[in-house]
Structures are given as C-alpha cells and as structure tokens.
Amino acid sequence: MHDIAAIILAAGASTRMGSPKQLLELQGKPLVVRACEAISGAEIKDIIVVVGANAAQVSAALALAKQPVRIVENPAWPEGMGASIRAGAAAIANDHNGALIALCDQPRFSTEAVKKMLAAWNAAGGAPDVIVAARYAGRAGAPAIFGRNYFARLRALAGAEGAKHILSGNAQNLRLVDLPELSLDVDTPEDWARAS
Predict the structure, then answer these.
(1) Into how many domains does the chain fold?
(2) Contact 179/120 with Cβ under 8 angstroms?
C-alpha cells in the first residue's frame, strides 16, 4: 500500500456535455466509478471524491458501485477546478506523504497509468518536494502526485486553473510520465463519441 491519498475531481457541471459527464457509462460503468477503480487497483486506499454540481447523483452512483471512498462536497464548485482541489486537499491527513489528483473525465485513465506514476514517485524517493505529473499532448497535466510540501498550496487554490502554476513553478522538482492515452478528455458529445 502506498502512503498517498487520492483526490478525484467530480464536481463540474458538464455544461458543454449537456449531462453529467461523471455518470457517462463506458463498458457499463460510470466514469467516476472507473476512476475510483483505477486508483484502488494500484493499492491506494484513501480515495476522496470531490462532488459539487449533481452531487446527489454522483454520490448515489458511487454508493451503488460500493466504492469505498470519502465523498467531500464542494459548495464553491462554480469557482472552478481550484476550489475542488482545495476542498479535496483540506480532507487529506497530514501524515500522508503525497496526494494524487485525478480527473474523472479521462476515459483512458487506468490502474496501469497510476502504477507508472507511482513507480516514478518511488524512484524519486517519495520526497516531500517532488511532483510527478502525466505528460501528453506536449504538456504536463493531471493526473499528478504532489509531495507533502505542496499540501498548503493545494489547500489555498482558487479559480478555474487548478494546480497548473504549481507544476510550472516547480520544474526542478517535476518528474514526467508519458501517458499519451490521457490526452483524450471528455467535455463535449463529440469527445464522448471518440471515447466510446
């Protein structure tokens, strides 16, 4: 088991999709459930799912799938991704060495991807100032593992940008894992057609 908590961001309103993308089913399972299974398959046990818009429906889908997760409601979800990371990070115990931040709208997100990231994290000694991020489409992005030294900054985030400025501002501590399959995320019906 890894001493890492996971935060799955599932609070958005999916306005461009027109229906809650967290609940879109791929191979018979909602995307939010698939994200939980990908992480638990890599033996990360402390999984936090941040909900906001459609909170009741997302929570019900997780309960139906018997996912052993902690659900954190983010009342400030309209602020954007930063507020959801902030809510999830506030729920992490300080004794964890790192926090994996993941999205629920990357249909190719998998246990294998998480294991590759954990391997890079372990190779860096799980140091408190290390960040491991996925690289796809020529850039670093989510999922990403942040060492404990970044918890305070994650708990102070706001706005729509998320944690991009933490990634860009700490290049010397950043380890990248090539995961080109994660370049597909689902924002529109056209994206979903490509995913399914």
Answers:
(1) 1
(2) no
pLDDT tens column, 145-173: 999 999 999 999 988 888 999 999 999 99
Residue found under tokens 């942040």: 146
Peptide bond into 143 cis (omega under 30): yes
* Cα distance between residue 185 and residue 162, in whole Å: 16
CA end-to-end span of the chain: 32
8 Å CB contact between 33 and 65 = yes
CATH of the domain at 20: 3.90.550.10
Q: Which domain holds residue 78?
A: 4-195
CA angle 88, 94, 100 (to 5 degrees): 45
Residue 4 · residue 146 · CB < 8 Å: no
Chain length of the chain: 196
pLDDT digits (tens, 9 = 90+) for 51-65: 999 999 999 999 998
The rounded distance, in Å, linking the Cα atoms of 184 and 196 is 11
Alpha-carbon gap, residue 170 to 125, rounded angstroms: 17
